[in-house]
Design brief:
By secondary structure, the chain is mainly alpha-helical. It is built from 17 helices and 2 strands.
Length: 304
């Protein structure tokens, strides 16, 4: 982004109090994010807990090759990409929600809606999956009750593989909609009222003000958040998928992260699972770097 303050030794000494406040976070990141990277070499060794990391034999890219040649490699990649891209397609939902809330004139109603929309974010994954299971239950679920009331036929959604992505993604949207909109609501709060008043004087409707004033003003924030979202396309977590997974929907719910869980935690193949995890991370970082470069060249807004 343009107009960045140049970091110099003089500016660091001048703002030393701010850097002291930043220090605990840096120490936390160094201890829990950077030091553990030492263990990444397990992916390149035939790791044995008895021999330790340095005592284990170096095998190079053997486990990476093994994963790529795995018969279900394409199957795992396609399932992971399908869910990741579907989730990315819902990226505008928090933005739309924030724009809608910004247009609400009643402060009391606005705060009430915000509070209600935040609540699902603070529910654990286990609770959310339990709620999803109850809601979509074929016999007692509220979703099937509504479908039957409207003249439809009850369906066991959780055992039909074709419905898995829809349930996974939209339950995630419901859980994160309010919390994800916070950053956009904050950005909209800083839109200059002078610009909005000028647009109103010129005869602009509320929709035109949103399109020509609000959205352009928060566009840099949207681009930054989109870059981060693109960097997690293959980063589909295993907890929620594992809790919603069953033998009948495996054809669409088996992804890279659940495969790593099975062979790493349950199977004890630490080197192989580490290699898959590192492969996944490299792909995500590569995508993030590409999207960031595209955003920097065409929009002059980027992470770095």
């Amino acid at each position: 982004m343009k107009n960045r303050k140049k970091l110099t030794l003089k500016s660091i000494f001048h703002d030393w109090r701010l850097y002291v406040l930043l220090l605990p976070s840096l120490v936390y990141l160094f201890i829990f994010a950077y030091i553990p990277m030492y263990g990444v070499q397990i992916a390149f060794r035939d790791f044995s807990p008895r021999k330790g990391i340095w005592g284990s034999e170096w095998v190079g890219l053997e486990y990476f090759k093994r994963f790529i040649e795995y018969p279900n490699f394409k199957f795992l990649m396609m399932n992971t990409l399908r869910i990741g891209l579907y989730s990315l397609a819902t990226f505008p939902c928090p933005i739309i929600f924030a724009l809608m809330l910004n247009e609400v004139r009643s402060t009391k109603f606005k705060k009430s809606v915000q509070m209600i929309s935040y609540i699902p974010h603070f529910l654990s994954t286990v609770v959310v999956c339990s709620m999803v299971t109850l809601f979509f239950n074929q016999k007692t679920g509220v979703v099937n009750a509504i479908i039957e009331f409207l003249g439809g036929t009850r369906t066991d959604f959780l055992t039909k593989a074709s419905y898995f992505e829809d349930i996974y993604v939209w339950s995630g949207v419901w859980q994160g909609l309010g919390f994800g909109a916070i950053i956009y609501i904050a950005a909209l709060a800083s839109v200059p009222m002078e610009q909005i008043e000028a647009a109103r004087i010129d005869g602009a409707t509320r929709l035109q003000i949103i399109w020509h004033v609000n959205i352009p003003y928060i566009l840099p924030t949207i681009i930054i958040m989109l870059i981060f979202s693109c960097g997690g396309i293959l980063g589909v977590g295993f907890e929620k998928i594992l809790l919603l997974q069953n033998d009948l929907n495996l054809s669409r719910s088996q992804v890279i992260s659940t495969y790593v869980y099975e062979i790493g935690i349950r199977g004890g193949q630490f080197s192989y699972s580490s290699a898959i995890g590192l492969f996944n991370t490299i792909i995500n970082v590569t995508i993030l770097a590409i999207v960031n470069e595209i955003a920097r060249r065409f929009g002059e807004t980027s992470i770095w």
